[in-house]
Amino acid sequence: MSDFGGRTYNSEKLTQDRSPRPQSQTNPKSRPATVSVIAIDGPVASGKTAVGLHLARELGYRVVDTGMMYRAITWLALNRGLDLDDEDALVALAESAIIELDQPGVGGNPTLKINGIDVTSQLRAPEVDRNVSLVSRVPGVRRAMVRRQRGLAAEGRLIMLGRDIGTVVLPDAPLKVYLDASAPVRAARRHKELAEAGINRPEAEILAELEARDKMDRERHSSPLKPADGAITIDTDALSLEDVIERVHEAAVAAP
Ligand code: DC
Questions:
Q1: Ligand 1 centroid to 242 CA: how many Å?
Q2: What does pTM read for this prediction?
Q3: Which CATH fold would you assign to the domain 34-254?
């Protein structure tokens, strides 16, 4: 486990520098929030990661992107050549894997090591993308991840991103947010993001993949994607990233 700027955490153990931190290093307009945990759920490309990272920077919170954990288990299963229909093997892998999530400084991009290997740059590989819904629908895999996620949340002052954070992982979170947007808008955003990273893929192809993953995430038996009871749902179709961050920030300041 590595340590950046006194802020180190992994899936089993979380330690943190307790000295006071500025509420914001980047946004002088930030107001303080005392809410312990912010749960943000939503479908593929709904903006969870961008909103979570910006907000974490404004509030001086950590971010736990639980999608990275499911992606890492998928990467490891593919790397070991496991049969992804072999649920027992996937559960054994999820229970035994050592996952370390680190975040450099306040609001830096999170990194992930699995069994000591830094796989951050491989988590969004097309093969992982295509198979992660298969792995994450297995109830035993989810149980193993949820246990780790609750352990991480216990320390507080964090934003947890996923599909089932408000419904299953942290149903008592003081602030639950569900980000939504129509599939074409999400596909267009993802297309632009990829183009900016030098990857040009037809938007229609991105839309088709996104709809297929949505379907699996929403229709799976175990922890399907849906807004949690008491969640604030934000339809982001007509909103800018700044607008969404502002709304969640307001809700965080107002939350108990
Ligand atoms: O947020 P993401 O696209 O990185 O998530 C990858 C996959 O992991 C997504 O298809 C569904 C799954 N996932 C999940 O089932 N539960 C979570 N809490 C987070 C992600």
A1: 24
A2: 0.86
A3: Rossmann fold (3.40.50)
